[in-house]
Amino acid sequence: MIYLLSLTLIILSLYDFKYKAVPDYLLLISLLLVFFVPGRALDEQLKDALLFAGAFTLLNFILTFYIQNIKSRIYKDDSLKQMEALGEGDIPIIAVIGALLGVSSGVVAIFITGVAALIFIVITKNKDGIPFIPFLSLGMFIEYFLNVSTYLNIILI
Fold first, then answer.
1. Exposed/middle/buried for residue 74 (C-beta within 10 Å: 0-12, 13-18, 19+)
2. What is the pLDDT of residues 62-121, one digit of tens each?
3. What is the rounded distance in angstroms from the CA atom of residue 93 to the CA atom of residue 46?
4. How many Å apart are CA 124 and CA 69, to the nearest integer?
5. Which of 9, 31, 128, 151 has CA atoms 20 to 30 A from the CA of 109?
6. What does each C-alpha distance from 25 to 3, 11, 63, 143 come to in angstroms?
7. Residue 36 lies in domain
8. What is the pTM (predicted TM-score) of this model?
């Protein structure tokens, strides 16, 4: 199942890079597939998926409020009033990360995501929005396959 989930996330990443939008049916497929990946109890997966989705929905609300109401006034840029912090497709992928990895590994994956996206922005000097699903997928893959959180626990202990 991890192979089908990986394939779906790669397709979503390619869509996001090309169109900066993704089909809802692929998001739903990835969200359903994650619950068939062995290794974690279904109730734990569901709890962590909802926790991550809820937390990032609130974060998206706060950041979008800041961009649309505060930053647009500071810079006197009305185009910012239409901007959102996260796209609608990002939240289901964040739920997939929570369901697949759990809370502690999921946080590490989100951190890896942020670092990778930041490096991409610096290298490309991109001032516009970037597709975020490819970076979410990359962070999830790195944590899932390399288990970076284990190495961080060893270093921090």
1. exposed
2. 887 777 777 667 777 776 666 665 778 899 999 999 999 999 999 999 999 999 999 999
3. 13
4. 28
5. 128
6. 18, 12, 27, 25
7. 2-156
8. 0.86
